């Protein structure tokens, strides 16, 4: 059975655990939506300090390197707003502090859609189900419902002028049973350009392009598209 097209909306907030998650996961869709006028902001939850592959780079330098890489990657797909929450990589938990900080981003940006990682483990693609991904996805969903829409939750935000906001839907990436797709054939090169900015994470940059194309070709097949097309897949949750 073919999947439904995920239509663009006026504004999207992307919440991911690590720098580079958005680019490997959904940068093709972001590039396509930006070309259609969608406003997009990124909320990166951790500082990425457990990432990288080169032991010669001091670990203390990794967070700043990864911030710069993510900002450059965002530019490659037309995104200017990138916020970093600064939680530690590798030890993320669904805390009230994390829900609070994501809620603040939702209320500040007031997106129609939140795009985040799946809190459901995908056993067919275990790499997409890093514990930080699961925690970031669960916290983002909690922030969407009920936190961001409830004016009596996180009342310090209301005191700062961040009014309650209701998100219309949430698109989950890497969900085991997707319902929607975005055709990213025409934005594949932009996605690759974004991924290439994460040099600290790419021990085999030459092989990365073929690997990512293979993922997206499989996504297009799942979506029921013709041969030669590429697609990113989502599970859509109506939240309003």
TrEMBL record:
GO terms for biological process: glycoside metabolic process. The keyword Hydrolase applies. GO terms for molecular function: hydrolase activity, acting on carbon-nitrogen (but not peptide) bonds, in linear amides. InterPro entries: GlcNAc_PI_deacetylase-related, LmbE-like_dom_sf. Keywords: Hydrolase. It is an enzyme of class 3 (hydrolase). The keyword Membrane does not apply. Its EC number is 3.5.1.115. PANTHER family: LMBE FAMILY PROTEIN, N-ACETYLGLUCOSAMINYL-PHOSPHATIDYLINOSITOL DE-N-ACETYLASE-RELATED. This is Mycothiol S-conjugate amidase. The lineage of its organism: Bacteria, Bacillati, Actinomycetota, Acidimicrobiia, Acidimicrobiales.
């Amino acid at each position: 059975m073919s999947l439904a097209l995920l239509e663009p909306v006026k504004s999207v907030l992307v919440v991911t655990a690590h720098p580079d998650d958005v680019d490997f996961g959904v940068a093709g869709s972001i590039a396509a939506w930006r070309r259609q006028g969608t406003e997009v902001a990124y909320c990166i939850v951790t500082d990425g300090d457990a990432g990288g592959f080169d032991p010669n780079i001091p670990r203390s330098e990794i967070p700043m390197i990864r911030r710069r890489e993510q900002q450059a990657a965002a530019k490659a797909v037309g995104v200017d707003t990138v916020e970093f929450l600064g939680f530690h990589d590798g030890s993320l938990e669904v805390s009230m502090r994390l829900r609070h900080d994501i809620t603040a981003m939702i209320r500040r940006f007031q997106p129609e859609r939140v795009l985040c990682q799946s809190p459901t483990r995908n056993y067919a693609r275990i790499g997409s189900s890093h514990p930080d991904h699961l925690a970031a996805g669960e916290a983002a969903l909690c922030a969407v419902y009920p936190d961001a829409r409830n004016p009596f939750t996180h009342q310090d935000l209301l005191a700062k002028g961040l009014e309650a906001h209701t998100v219309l839907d949430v698109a989950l990436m890497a969900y085991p049973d997707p319902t929607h797709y975005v055709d990213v054939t025409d934005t594949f090169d932009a996605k690759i350009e974004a991924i290439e900015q994460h040099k600290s994470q790419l021990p085999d940059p030459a092989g990365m392009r073929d690997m990512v194309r293979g993922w997206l070709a499989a996504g297009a097949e799942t979506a029921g598209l013709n041969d030669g097309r590429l697609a990113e897949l989502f599970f859509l949750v109506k939240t309003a």
